Amino acid sequence: MENVYIVGVGMTKFGRHVDKTVKQLTAWAVEDALKDAGCDRKWIQVGFFGNCTQGHFDGQHMIRGQVALLPLGLDGIPIFNIEGACASSSHAFSLAVTQLQAGAADVAIAVGAEKMFYSDKAKMFSAFESAWDIETFEDNKNYLAAMGKSIVPPEGSQSKNPYSPFMDVYAALGRGGLMERYGITQRQLAAVSSKNHGHSVHNERSQYRNAMSIEEILAAPPITYPITLPMCSPISDGAAAAILCTESALKKYGFDKNRAIKVLASVVRSASARAAEDFDKGCTHLAGKAAFEQAGISPSDVDVAEVHDATAIGELLAIEALGLCEPGMSGVDAERGDSALGGRLPVNPSGGLESKGHPIGATGIGQIFELVEQLRGNCGPRQVEGARIALQGNGGGLWRVEESTEHVGIFSRA
C-alpha cells in the first residue's frame, strides 16, 4: 500500500459571501488548490465533494458535486457526493486517501463547500435540526437536559434570540462532561475562546479577526449556560479543497516533494451505544486511538492540532478525548496558555471554528488547509515553530450522547 501525500490546498476566506454561490466558492478553492499543487486538472482521476445544506437552502438535493465540479473541467471522472454533517469534507478527504491506497487512482481531489448565511434566520438555524435523529428528537433533548444536573444555570444565562439547537447540545455536554466531571469553569472556557480569537487576528482567511479578553467573553451576551456568544462558531459560507496523490505519482507528475505533506493516518469512526459517563468508549477517543496506532506515534508527538471547537466546550472535550492533555486538565491548560501559540501544544492556531468560521461542509478540509500550511512553515505570525507532526479532529452530528461521526487525521512533513 503506497504512502499518500497532500500536494495542494486551497481555501476561501470564511464568512458571509452574500454575492457568491456554492459553485463560485467551490471554484475559488479548487483553482487555488490546483495552483498550489502545480497540478493540471487533467491529472485528477477522482473527486469527492462534501456538502450538507444546499438541498435545504437551494433545492439542489442531488448531484451537488457534479454541479459544482464539472464546470471546472473535472469532467468524465467519478465524482462522489458526501454528507456527514460537520465532518462532510473530512469524510471526502478520508475516502480520497482510501481510493489512492487501494490503487484505484493516483491523483484525487477532495472538496467541501457550504453557503449557510441567509436572511431568513428561522430557516438558517433549522438547517441544523436534521443533524441528529429526528424521530427521537424529544428523547434526545430530555436525555441531554439531564446531563450535569448539579450545575444550575444562573438567572439570565439563556438567550431570548434564536440560536442553533446544537448550542444546547454543547451546553449539556459541557455541564456533564467537563464541569461536573472535572470541575472545569466558565472562566476556563472563556480562556479557550479568548485564545482562539487572538489566534485569528493573524489569519487573513478568518471570519472574525478581533482579539477578545477573557473578561470581554464572560461579559458577552449569553447563549445557553455556560456558553456566551464569542464561545460559539458563527454561521459561515466558504469552501476548501485538497489535492492528494500516491508516492509514485509525486515523481510521475513532478509534484514538489519538499512541499508535500504525508498522510500518516486518516480514521473515520461512528458513534457507539454507550452510557454518557462511559468516556473510554467515546467516538473521538476511539478514533484518536486508532489514528495514533496507524501513524505509529503517541499524543505527546503532536506539535500542533486543529480540533472541532463549534463551541469552546468542543475544544476541551476533543483535547480530553484525544489524550492531548492529562485527564481533567484541559481547562487548566487553556487558562495557563498551554494550548496557545508558544505553549506546550498550540491548538487551533487558525482561530478555530469559533473565530475562523464554520461552513459545516467545508470545515474539515479547512482545518487540513491550516495544518498543511503549518507543516510547510507558511503561517507567519501564527506559525508554530518547528511543527513536524499535526493532528486534525473533526466531528459531525449527534447520536445519543456524542458526535455521530468523527475523523482524526495525522500529518507530517514529507
From TrEMBL:
In its UniProt entry, what is this protein called?
Thiolase family protein
Q: Which CDD domains match?
A: SCP-x_thiolase
InterPro entries associated with the record:
Thiolase (IPR002155), Thiolase-like (IPR016039), Thiolase_C_2 (IPR055140), Thiolase_N (IPR020616)
The species is Zestomonas insulae
Q: Name one Pfam family in it.
A: Thiolase_C_1
| Chain ranges of the Thiolase N-terminal domain | 4-208
Q: Where is the Thiolase C-terminal domain?
A: 268-400
- List residues traversing the bilayer: none
